[in-house]
Protein: Putative GTPase
Amino acid sequence: MPAQRSSSKNGANKTSRKVRGALGKSEGSGDGVRKLGLKSSIVGKAHRKVRVASDVDRTKNKGSRKGQSRNGDDDAVTYVDASEKLSGKGRRGKRDLKTRTGNEGLEAVMDRNLGRKRKRIYADPGMVEDSKSSSKSKSNVVESDLGKGKKVPRGKDHEFNDSSRKTSLVGSNKLMGSELLDKKVRRSKREGADKLKNVQENGLGNRTSKTNGKGKIRLATEKRDLNWGKYTVGSVEKQRKKKDQGKKNSATDSDLMEKPKKKKRVIRIDPHDISNKRLDDEKANNGSLPKKIDSAENSVEMSKNAQFRAIRPSPSILSFVEDNLLGRRRDIEFRRAGYNTELSAPLDNIPFSTSSERERIEIPIFRNKLEFFAAAKISSSFPSPDLPEIAFAGRSNVGKSSLLNALTRQWGVVRTSDKPGLTQTINFFKLGSKLCLVDLPGYGFAYAKEEVKEAWEELVKEYVSTRVGLKRVCLLVDTKWGMKPRDHELIDLMERSQTKYQIVLTKTDTVFPMDVARRAMQIEENLKEKKSAVQPLMMVSSKTGAGIRSLRTVLANVARLVRR
Ligand SMILES: Nc1nc2c(ncn2[C@@H]2O[C@H](COP(=O)(O)OP(=O)(O)OP(=O)(O)O)[C@@H](O)[C@H]2O)c(=O)[nH]1
Ligand SMILES: [Mg+2]
Structure:
């Protein structure tokens, strides 16, 4: 059976054969591939070429060269690439060979292939010797048959070894004179040395060492690449691309060595170097080192949040926060403090609570039933001021309606919602026959038309500034957000109309106790000069009930005063 056919049937051997072919070795080359850690498939791809080796002493190797097929009659061993086999070119070559013997067959193949650009034909009578030596060669020495016993150490200068091996392949073909061979060897040496130098200096990225573009040299370079295992990354295809790119750039090795790869610039700014400051800063500093900014300037530059964090609450506020268990707390803390956490404290849209719940209220006036009796959209609709009134004002959604429910523990009497703008009229609630609690519409953001909101605001302003019988306005402020411009507007109005008002911080359960105290301190500071503002500032949570008892006490005093 023809050698090629038998070998082509054996798929497993095909790859190993290619590898061996590529390295020009028999068993030793296989070892070499394994040693280099290269995939045989990569090697095979790299060498899609036909190689014919005149195997003079092949018979010596009978049986020992697995995967390398034999032609019983011929002395020629042909390595045919799989792709070529498919295309049929390889077969034609084989058929020709079958009819000839020894060097005759070899020459025929060479003659046929010399005209082709991509096919390389090498005959190496010393190949077996080579393979023998390399099969031994776990030792670091390769014997070059050109060097006639000259031993070349592998490792550092192994590119020289490879090039010499390539030259041996060519030289044994007797197609080149010794002069030409010497030239080739020298060039290969030079190239190898250049390439190694290039890699050592510039890394793998600059491996654009150029050949003279001739096929043999190119093949030699590829072979060298394979043996350069430790320097080679990726497939040979990649290397080819790089080479092509290198050609385009028309840069020589020396050029590349002269121009090392540009490194990315890293700009570092010296924190002590004021030259990187803006011009304005320079002017302010008069070119000298930055001055220590005094506290006044500092306060201007500080963000609102930072300013808030800088507030130091007074001891009285801090103790009030602790005594009333204000701020975000755990249930267990409320229980320890004597709060009945099992009592329902719902806030929004719930059915009316039972009378048993208000019986627990410690201040008698708040145990009375809360009854809605009037709603007004315009000032002319206000009911007659028979009872002293306490009104609850503030921005929409601040918790006015919820606070009315919480104070009286009568959930469901005053409607509440998480949507700002639920209360759209002034709602009057009687607390027994002694006190009237008034729920005002909110101002600021609400789900309502601008004109409507403006109308609410005007109504509220009119009520707080003109209402006879209005004894106190509880101005509710969300603890989290603090006072807003519209709150100040209303305060100014109440100051002008000398309406007594008291700030009540709501939703204290949403922030930390310290922030409750800070907010209280901040507002107290702001309102120091205000004559109509009633101290102390109150803090509550309708959800947890914290501070509600204290507020009841304060408001009950208002009612008592009225009675006198
Ligand atoms: N966490 C917490 N939520 C509260 C508290 N008080 C009220 N809320 C919630 O805040 C939302 C608004 O409450 P309302 O009582 O309807 O607020 P309002 O000021 O009457 O709002 P308008 O009627 O739109 O002006 C509701 O979803 C309440 O459940 C509180 O103390 N803590
Ligand atoms: Mg409301």
